[in-house]
């Protein structure tokens, strides 16, 4: 079969990890998965888009990026000033979109993804906000063109959440889920269980390279909100707006609260909840929104109001610190571990636990999506 021609848009931590893996693991990918990959286009913000229909030299591009030289200076290759210009002017079989796009407008990732899908080219992305804000639209666009739209790394990085819930549970009716979906916030709360202050725990996470110098997205809850919106769009087929998700961060949790919860055998966790109920307030299986399991009476839980949106059924979507009892599985999710407990009919509860962060994990999630897309190609003559 002819090689899978890939555009790799975004050449930062994840994009470079993937390029390295595609280079060093080329033989294994071919023999184990029948997957031969040719990266024909690469782009970053600083240098623009570089393209070679015969395949770019990944080692050379990686060396240029590492040395701070323009990645567009590749022998025999053509260049365009922006990724969008390059995407419009060239051909490929798959877009890997791994730029970082903000919550405000999800750009430039959204435009890159739309451009590929409209042309009937499958997309794999690790970029959360385009999927969070437009996931249902993008999935529908992909379906209308008969191509794949995959975003495994956007939720729990390389731990397979989306593929498990959408493919492994294909045909089941998802009813709701709870989870701990941010490794940084969970590591901070775990450390605070011994009474360490929030500020000390955050500083330790930053020293360990776990929290960003600006940790706002993780500790204020927006990263988890994005994941709730992605799960809603891709697993439940319901697009949420930002306003529909109640968001409370962990910045108000004190060391004393965390220690008191631990002394009582409980834990404070930053819990994501997504529930769908019928128009009469009951879930499709006759259980109400409380059917997901114990709710916490944590520092903010008692004041928390779930976002409820009436229409063809109500949606409860929230991210907040909750005190969970010792027999709640989420109480045992410590450090950088994350977990999702999904309720589906007729299966019951399905729990996925795994590491929730790290560039290698994100790259691995992208690689698994890429292999899935390669496996769906029709066999050649
Ligand atoms: N790192 C992780 O652990 C992880 C985990 C899960 C998901 N993700 C998601 O994966 C994505 C990539 O993460 P990352 O850590 O690799 O981010 P990163 O290191 O900041 O890299 C982002 C890349 O996107 C490029 N870029 C930005 N705007 C662009 C544009 N208009 N056209 C072309 N390229 C553009 C940047 O170019 P320059 O190099 O010129 O700045 C950079 O190469 C993000 O959306 C992130 O949220 C990351």
Walkthrough of the structure:
With 381 residues, the protein is of the alpha/beta class. The chain contains 13 helices and 14 strands. The strands form two sheets. The chain has a seven-stranded mixed β-sheet, with helices on both faces. Strands 8, 9, 10, 11, 12, 13 and 14 form a seven-stranded mixed β-sheet that branches. Strand 2 and strand 3 (48-51) form a beta hairpin. Helix 8 (183-192) packs across helix 9 (198-207). The structure holds NADP nicotinamide-adenine-dinucleotide phosphate. Residues 9-15, 43-46, 83, 98-100, 108, 126-128, 153, 157, 357-359, 362 line the site of NADP nicotinamide-adenine-dinucleotide phosphate (NAP).
In terms of per-residue confidence, which ranges show pLDDT below 50 for 5 or more consecutive residues?
280-311
| Biggest sheet character | 7 strands, mixed
What is the strand arrangement across the widest sheet? 4-3-2-1-5-6-7
Per DSSP, the total helix count is: 13
Structural class: alpha/beta
Q: Give the amount of beta strand, in percent.
A: 15-25%
What is the helix fraction of residues, given as a range?
Answer: 25-40%
Shape verdict: globular
Rg of Cα set: 21 Å
Give short descriptive properties of this protein.
seven-stranded mixed β-sheet, globular, binds NADP nicotinamide-adenine-dinucleotide phosphate, alpha/beta, 381 residues
Question: What are the SSEs and their pairings?
Answer:
Blueprint: E1 4-9, H1 13-24, H2 26-33, E2 37-44, E3 48-51, H3 58-67, E4 78-80, H4 83-89, E5 94-97, H5 109-118, E6 123-125, H6 128-145, E7 149-150, H7 162-168, E8 173-180, H8 183-192, H9 198-207, H10 216-219, H11 222-235, E9 246-247, H12 255-263, E10 267-277, E11 307-308, E12 314-324, E13 337-345, E14 348-355, H13 359-375
Residues 9-15, 43-46, 83, 98-100, 108, 126-128, 153, 157, 357-359, 362 line the site of NADP nicotinamide-adenine-dinucleotide phosphate (NAP).
């Amino acid at each position: 079969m002819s090689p899978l021609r890939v555009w790799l848009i975004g050449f930062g931590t994840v994009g470079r990890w993937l390029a390295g893996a595609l280079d060093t693991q080329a033989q294994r990918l071919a023999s184990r998965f029948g997957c031969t990959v040719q990266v024909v286009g690469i782009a970053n913000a600083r240098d623009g888009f570089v393209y070679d229909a015969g395949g770019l030299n990944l080692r050379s591009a990686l060396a240029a990026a590492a040395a701070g030289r323009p990645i567009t200076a590749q022998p025999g290759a053509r260049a365009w000033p922006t990724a969008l210009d390059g995407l419009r002017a060239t051909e490929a079989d798959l877009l890997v979109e791994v730029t970082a796009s903000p919550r405000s407008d999800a750009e430039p990732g959204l435009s890159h993804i739309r451009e590929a899908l409209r042309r009937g080219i499958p997309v794999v992305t690790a970029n959360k906000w385009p999927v969070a804000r437009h996931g249902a639209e993008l999935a529908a666009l992909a379906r209308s063109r008969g191509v794949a739209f995959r975003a495994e790394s956007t939720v729990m990085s390389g731990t397979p959440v989306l593929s498990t819930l959408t493919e492994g549970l294909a045909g089941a009716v998802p009813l709701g889920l709870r989870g701990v979906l941010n490794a940084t916030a969970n590591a901070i709360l775990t450390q605070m269980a011994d009474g360490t202050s929030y500020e000390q725990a955050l500083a330790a996470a930053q020293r360990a390279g776990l929290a960003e110098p600006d940790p706002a997205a993780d500790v204020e809850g927006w990263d988890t909100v994005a994941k709730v919106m992605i799960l809603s769009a891709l697993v439940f087929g319901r697009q949420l707006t930002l306003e529909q998700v109640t968001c409370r961060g962990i910045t108000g949790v004190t060391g004393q609260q965390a220690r008191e919860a631990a002394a009582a055998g409980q834990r404070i966790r930053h819990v994501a909840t997504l529930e769908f109920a019928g128009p009469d307030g009951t879930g499709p299986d006759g259980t109400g929104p409380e059917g997901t399991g114990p709710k916490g009476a944590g520092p903010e839980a008692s004041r928390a109001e779930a976002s409820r949106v009436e229409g063809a059924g109500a949606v409860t979507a929230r991210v907040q610190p909750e005190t969970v009892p010792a027999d709640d599985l989420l109480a045992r999710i410590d450090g950088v571990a994350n977990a999702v407990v999904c309720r589906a009919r007729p299966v019951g509860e399905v729990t996925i636990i795994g590491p929730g962060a790290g560039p290698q994990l994100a790259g691995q999630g992208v690689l698994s999506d890429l292999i899935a897309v390669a496996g769906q190609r029709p066999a050649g003559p």
